[in-house]
Amino acid sequence: MQIMPNRMDREFYKHQEEYEKAALNVLRSGWYVLGENVAEFEKEFAEFVGSKYCVGVASGLDALWIAFRALGIKEGDEVLVQGNTYIASVMGITINGARPVFVEPDEYYNIDTCKIEDKITDKTKAILVVHLYGQASNMTSVMKIAKKYGLYVVEDCAQAHGASWNGQQVGTFGDIGCFSFYPSKNLGAYGDAGAITTNSDQIRDFVHMFRNYGSEKRYYNKLVGTNSRLDEIQAALLRVKLKYIQEVSQEKKKTAERYLEELDTREIVLPKIRKGSDSVWHQFVIRCSRRDSLIDYLNNKGVGTIIHYPIPPHLSEAYQYLELDKGSLPITEQYASEVLSIPMYTGMTEDEQRFVIENLNTFG
Ligand SMILES: *Cc1c(COP(=O)(O)O)cnc(C)c1O
Q1: What is the 3-state secondary structure of 216-243?
Q2: Interval between CA 181 and ligand 1 midpoint (Å)
Q3: What are the start-end ranges of the E strands in the chain?
Q4: Which residues pair with 194 in a beta bridge?
């Protein structure tokens, strides 16, 4: 047996006819940019998340940088973000000229809220919370700190569509929620796509204009914007996928429960679930101090894995200018050297799950 770490085709073939019909309908409609599918998807997704508004954009990274732009974050400002995130979270901050200030993660791989206040200065303007691997962060603590210091909160929900904290979905706690619909995400399109969610009329209006050259009415440009529109075909496909998002989360949850129950080896650290947090298991991430040997061992058996992420943003070449040395974020760096994502996807068969479990349990 050969198992890939992720498979995006299984979900497509499960509802193939519906996806093909949706794409064909757009092709045949003669209307290809900002049509009814984008408008309807925005309504449907806002309703799903539980926010007042959703505005579609071209990608998750665009959602992030446009969110900070909407909040007026600029050069000279500082934004707090966890050290162990995907580099796009950080780029969302730095594209606007602001400086990322890294906070160490907790044992759930989310921002350690006990370490946030130490990093606040008079330049701090916002906290970017990343609900990494599908698990909601402790939003009660984050919101309390933000209120105390008058900071904005932006949520990076790229890996956590439908995840919740104390029954409330991510993307509704902060000022803005940022979503990616990159194909490998739980709510994945068939190309690039993204969105922001917000309860603010002002932010909604800004993003609505900004994504379309700063214009609400054609050829009347109120501000210098960009072209970051959610594609009409992707919106049509996302409307189909949104109908099955609960199915996807439930299926992944079942796989995760089985992994947690049946994985049994001292060589690895299993993921922990925070009380009050309902994870959607975008990734199932284990830790292993002998990670390289484990990867080779699993590879030889036919089990593919991925590292999310091997180089933390502060040590990447792109962020050398921040002058943060190795050792400056020890927990982030330890996680980067030990984390490993094992196969987890929609349509994973019980045999495939068993194969992964058996091979992991014989490592050592
Ligand atoms: C995927 C991802 C992004 C970026 O989304 P794109 O649509 O690929 O631009 C941002 N943040 C996190 C945490 C992600 O996983």
Answers
A1: EECCEECCCCCECCCEHHHHHHHHHHHH
A2: 8
A3: 53-57, 78-82, 99-103, 124-130, 152-156, 164-165, 168-169, 176-180, 194-198, 215-217, 220-221, 268-269, 277-278, 284-288, 339-342
A4: 57, 180
Amino acid at 299: N
| Sign of the dihedral defined by the CA atoms of residues 237, 240, 243, 249, in that order | negative
Bond into 309 cis (ω within 30): yes
Write out pLDDT tens, residues 314-356: 999 999 999 999 999 999 999 999 999 999 999 999 999 999 9
Distance (Å, whole) CA 353 – CA 271: 17
- Joined together, the tokens standing for residue 306 give 């991925």
Task: Centre a 10 Å sphere on the Cβ of residue 123 and count the other Cβ atoms it contains.
Answer: 12
Closest atom of ligand 1 to CA, residue 182: 7
Atom of ligand 1 nearest to the CA of 85: 13
Strand partners, 82: 103
Residue 19 CB neighbours (<10 A): 18
Residues 229-248: tens digit of each pLDDT: 999 999 999 999 999 999 99
Tokens at 130, concatenated: 């990343």
Residue 90 contacts residue 312 (beta carbons within 8 Å): no
Task: For the sheet with 99-103, list strands across it.
Answer: 53-57, 194-198, 176-180, 152-156, 124-130, 78-82, 99-103
Query: Which residues neighbour 218 within 8 Å (Cβ) at sequence distance 6 or greater?
Result: none
Residue nearest to atom 12 of ligand 1 (CA): 158
- For the stretch 29-52, pLDDT in tens is 999 999 999 999 999 999 999 999
